[in-house]
Predict the 3D structure of the following.
Amino acid sequence: MIKCGECGYENMDGLDYCDGCGAKLAAAAGGTAAAPAAETKSETTPPPQPSADIDAKATPSLAADAPVDGQPTSEVPTGDLKKETPEAPAPSADASGAAAPSGAPATFKAKLSVVRGGRKGQEFPLEDGNNLVGRWDPETGSFPEVDLDADDPEAKISRKHALIRIDGGKITIEDIGSLNGTYVNRQPRLSPGSPAEIKSGDEVIIGKTFLKLVIEPIS
């Protein structure tokens, strides 16, 4: 007789499964109950393989670092980064190189020269940006860049008469509300607040003083 290790039912010899509960019987009649229990437990308890699979899935990066053909794959991205590193400054170098040749026109120096109605031949250099044309104001202590006080004995020139501006190679003159007006090449009086472009050789009349714009290129 073969006694079932699960329910204790005694089965006839030669049976593989218990007639009482259906559990698998030991192969030999002298088999202990511990063996079926161990087999049943091994069948019902999930094997430790899933955890091994999880570990294998959780460590793909380690596998990626494993040598391939005798050479670690980690050296491949490192080499790529080293190749890209010297190429990165190239755009900035090109940008700086493109910025170097500005392509700006040749610089020049400009000046106003008195040709009539004052100290003939007197010159007034003009600076980049704004150049105030007028007369020294003792009340405010302001000195215009083009001070025509000594060239205007009749005081026909306002303290703040006109504004000459040099910007980006362009020269303009603007009347800023003078009493006797500003004229270019004997054309109609300039409207206050309306700049007019002037070029080398143009005549500018301020009050009763005639001046000529002179532009000299700098090599």
